Amino acid sequence: MHIAVTGNIGAGKTSLAKKLADHFGWEVFYEAVEGNPYLADFYEDMPRWAFHLQLYFLKSRYEQVMQIQRSNKRIIQDRTIYEDAYIFAKNLHRSGVMSENDYTTYKGIFDLMMSNVKAPDLTIYLKADLPKLISQIKKRGRDFESNIPIEYLKDLNAHYEEFTENYTYGKILILDVNDMDYLNNPDDLNIVIQKVDKALIYEKV
Ligand SMILES: Nc1ncnc2c1ncn2[C@@H]1O[C@H](COP(=O)(O)OP(=O)(O)OP(=O)(O)O)[C@@H](O)[C@H]1O
């Protein structure tokens, strides 16, 4: 079984994936942040490193998906391959950071991969507004994320809205996490667990 958590930078995907994995006995597949050779450079100079970073994430996410599909385990994945293409790469292209040629090459590789990719059984979208994202990014205090432009987060959120409203890859559970603290408040975590439980049982959520 493949569960995925989707949402903007700082939405709280990693923490929720851990909590749900502990509760349901799932395995977590994390995003390639530690040891990512392009991420810090990308935040310093986006046009220079956008294509490199996108290829890197695409490759690592595809490897994960293939591993999940081969496995019989119940796995929760921290961010989907769809977000790389339909949120991050698309946004970099639309905002003029990634050139037409680079985007066409990237999209060609992504489309080839898609023939082997199956959608998650359930996708959980953590919907958060800018103040929440900004405060969580600040709280975790990663050096390379300290100068993320607000416009970048705002554009990504607009792409997330467009993407999740038109999501047709399977079941999606939308959780508004603006007023939630499932990390420190057990009641909030229980609410989420119940919703996920229900979503896993019922066809439509
Ligand atoms: N395809 C991508 N293009 C550009 N940046 C990406 C892409 N995928 C991930 N990232 C960046 O890599 C880092 C991932 O960090 P992390 O795994 O902690 O997730 P996050 O998005 O901050 O989520 P959360 O706080 O919800 O766990 C973030 O800075 C994120 O924006």
Automatic annotation (TrEMBL):
Molecular function in Gene Ontology: kinase activity
Top-level EC class: transferase
Protein's recorded name: Deoxynucleoside kinase
CDD domains found in the cross-reference section: dNK
Organism: Arcicella rigui
Keywords carried by this UniProt record: Kinase, Transferase
EC id: 2.7.1.-
UniProt keyword annotation of Ion transport present: no
InterPro entries, sorted: DCK/DGK (IPR002624), Deoxyribonucleoside_kinase (IPR050566), DNK_dom (IPR031314), P-loop_NTPase (IPR027417)
Domain Deoxynucleoside kinase: 3-198
Alphabetized Pfam families for the sequence: dNK (PF01712)
Coiled coil is among the record's keywords: no
